[in-house]
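hey so i finally got around to running the thing on that chain from the lab meeting. sorry it took forever, my laptop kept dying and i had to restart like 3 times. anyway pasting the input first so we r on the same page abt which one it is
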Amino acid sequence: MTVSHEAADTVRIRSTEDLLALVPHQVGRQPRNTSVLFFPVAGASALCLSMNSPTEDTDPYELGAELAEVLARVRHCGEVVVTVYSDHALEGGVDREAVAAARWECAVERAGLTVLRTLVVGPQHWWDLAEPDRALPVELIRDSAVNAQMIALGSAAEPDAPEHDPRWRHRFARRAPDVTRAWERLRTDDGDPAPARTTVPGPTPPTIDPDPRHPLTAWHRAVRCVQADRQHWVDAVLGLSDGHLALLIEGVHDDLVRDALLYAWLSGSTARAAAALAGLRAAMVRLGGGTAGSEPSEDEIDEALRCVVAVAGEWDGPPDWDTLDSAYRVLQVLDGILGAGCDPLADPAEVAAGSREAAGGRDPSSDQEPLAAREPSSDRQPLTTAAASVVATLAQLEVYRGRAHTASRLLARCADREGAAGSERSVMPGRSAAADVAHRLRRQPTPWWCVDRRTAWPGRGAWERGASDQR
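ok and heres what got predicted. didnt touch it at all, straight out
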């Protein structure tokens, strides 16, 4: 059998700016504090290899041997462009980055390759080290025709997460204590007498549970809120109440609700997910030797089975990309808030400075309770586990997008969090959000829909263009 592949769109690299503009679209994110090696390969294609930047203590010969081993089975052309990305590369000088570049040049020669160019990219400027005194603005990269072409084609590149943006960091830090307390009250039922994990009533509900305190309902409303204001989606999520955000966290922290949510985002139907959740809960009661209050309906059992298959990436799909990408953005904001609550991204002075900068020099908290007076609970273990669940759910969505390397990078982030909070066990022994994703990655790194351009993830641009579709 002969398989004919669709003709790929041609991207023409006419300048160094074009090459630098292509890199984030190739690696799936804007590189920061790392190095990217760009290799022309056979068939007028290219390979981007992202690696840690070497330091003064790095042995270039060992690095060259490692590089040669990585490239042993790659049909490259024997040439490479080395780019060192650094947040410390400022207009005043790039001495530190020049050291890393020199180590790379030595390592590349050790691997038998020829260095075409050595570049450094900082937050505001970039340099060709053949002319180290000539700083060029990064706007030249963003304005490149290649960047515009890749975005139009549905690039897989994601912008920096909101937690790295000074506009949002201080807001996440200030919101974290209140959301943390709301989540702790939710789990202990100290505040609201209604339990968080309300079951979905009825045999086959035609709509979602109207109870606003149910995590499925909370997630449905949050996703719709983001879809209604795509240009200001971070503001849209931060506009939700503390209790609402706490329900969203609880939803992805509960094993069965998390499965149902993934099914809702894949299928685009919260009603089907609600039926699946009822079937899954009945099955867990049976497996535990208990007796369910009422037998699940046939439709609930069917949806539960479809949920298990869909979440594993083995269903008939493809995913409802608009719903899945909307949920991804909600999770990014939750990650920023919980990261500020568990492991602050900056010290209080830096957060305060970011607040004043974002507010044009005015202290935006002048009419609020001081941050020091709003310290979160001292018991961080449950919160740390919840934060790991949010990051792992982001990783699972990256698997559905066909970005297994990005998913693995996210799993590495939450490994330490889960290890630090290992005393809190899942309601299902052996399960955790990160373990679930790692298991699915081992079984099927790439879902079937990712190999066909007609069903694969269309890229971030498709979701953003959906804003015009709703107006």
